[in-house]
Amino acid sequence: HNAVINDLSRQGCQVSNIFLRAGTPVWVKFGQLAAIEGRVMWARGDQSGIRFNQALHPAVLDHVAAAARVR
């Protein structure tokens, strides 16, 4: 599924355009980077908050944010 990432931090992200259930384990993939395991912490309609099992490395966060600004 192609969710839209509306907010991103080292600890997790807020996504929309996808229907998820709180408590569901998920894998989040940013482009060509390896998928990151997380869990849906909350869900309202097509919006959800995901907490990553391991915080993103600062360089990975910078890379993903820079790629998002280019588009």
Structural account:
- This protein is an alpha+beta fold and 71 residues long.
- The protein is built from one helix and five strands, in the order βββββα.
- It has a five-stranded antiparallel sheet, with no helix packed on it.
- A hairpin with a 7-residue loop joins β3 (25-28) and β4 (36-44).
- It is globular, with a radius of gyration of 11 Å.
- 10% of the residues are buried.
Radius of gyration, in Å, reads 11 Å
Q: Strands of the largest sheet, in order across it?
A: 1-2-5-4-3
Number of helices: 1
H-E order: EEEEEH
Q: What ranges have pLDDT less than 50 throughout 5 or more consecutive residues?
A: none
The pLDDT mean sits at 92
Give the % helix: 10-25%
Provide the β-strand percentage band.
Answer: 35-45%
- How would the global form be characterised? globular
Largest sheet: 5 strands, antiparallel
Query: Which structural class do the helices and strands define?
Result: alpha+beta
Distance between the termini: 19 Å
β-strand number: 5
